[in-house]
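FORM 7B: Structural annotation worksheet

SECTION A. Query
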Amino acid sequence: MAEQLRILTLNCWGLKYVAKNRTERIQAIAQELAKFDHDIIALQEIWVFADYEHVRDSVVKRLPYAKFFYSGALGSGLALLSRFPIIGTSVHPYSLNGAPIDVAGGDWFVGKAAVSIIISHPVLGQVQVFNTHLYAKGGEDGPEYNRAHRLVNAWEFSKLVRQAAELGRYVIAAGDFNSIPSTLPMALIREYAALSDSWADAHPTPPTISSPSAMEAITQFGVTADSPLNSYSAGKPIGPYARKFLGKRLDYVLYRQPVRPLTRPDDPLPLLKCTECNVVLTDTVPGHAFSFSDHFGLEATLEIRTGSQVPADLADTHNVWSVSGASALAGPASELSADSLSTAMQALAACYRFSRQRARKELLLFALCIVILLALVVSSSWLPHSWINPIFILFTIFIAWLATTMLYEGFLYGNWECNALMNVIEELEIYKNTLETR
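SECTION B. Predicted structure
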């Protein structure tokens, strides 16, 4: 008996007032999703609840169960739609999401998180489906501490996935990870959470094309963002990696098997195996010259192998199953490699030092603002002309705002960031010591 799960993930780019052609694109996305035959759909950047309702109502006959997740000041932008009943939900806001002073980036103002639903599947039992959108800034080049916030996201996400599997649940994780496959955040997720990459499993043989076309970069390498074939990427400033490889693979459908319950050591468990994975929604919106989103969608088909279809070595194992490439190997739970662990700790420590230095500078600027404000108060009695008053008042307001901002940035946020970084550093140190004592 062979059944399957079909999953789709899409970053909708649906921020109100900012995203271009949002209304037309969301309507087109809803129409396209209604044509598809997926069991689970994970959406990112669907910030407006009315947009979510429109998509949900368009697919309700196929996917009657859905959850829109709230988090942060402007929402998480995350939603999950399912063919199977939802029996539980959770939201885990990431502890670090950029700085509040980075208004242009905007990550701090939204509630980027790892959200999940637990579905009741007729063959697999409980399946925990995660949806996430990791911190955006940092790119792929330069020192790893530039991506420290994304590293923290990846570590927290990996812990949640591992805990779900240890509870005996199958795990499916989809979303926009803002990381290409070779980066450290993805290494943390693959190694510690033991998640298999659907694209890598469905395309086990690396492409031999040395200079792919833009379409070949999509079909052969799984490019989902910054493609020259996307109307919103064409002509916009992009990094050297995206220029070289004609885009980036940032969107993933990941999965893993559960840890076998000790109470059922001989109970054969079904096996998940990705058999197909494709980039979708690569065309422009019908009747328009713009794309469905600034990301393409990604769909994966996970085959459910049961009974005699499960390899004997997997049927007999009592531990976690790790599936990679075209082979499935039974063995102990995946652990972080020494290189990944060392690099992550160095990156987080570097970011911690940078954060402390920045906080001190911001507190010094706060003190300077207080001195200036005192000088303004004293000098206000000797203004030579009345027309200076409005300028004087505006300047005073600006200095007061700057002082307040620097106090918040340097003291409250600075301590928050340092504490969050130190928590992860100490967790990794404990983890490293545990590995060394085994």
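SECTION C. Observations
The longest strand covers residues 2-11. The domain at 2-335 is CATH 3.60.10.10 (Deoxyribonuclease I; Chain A).

SECTION D. Sign-off
Analyst initials: ____
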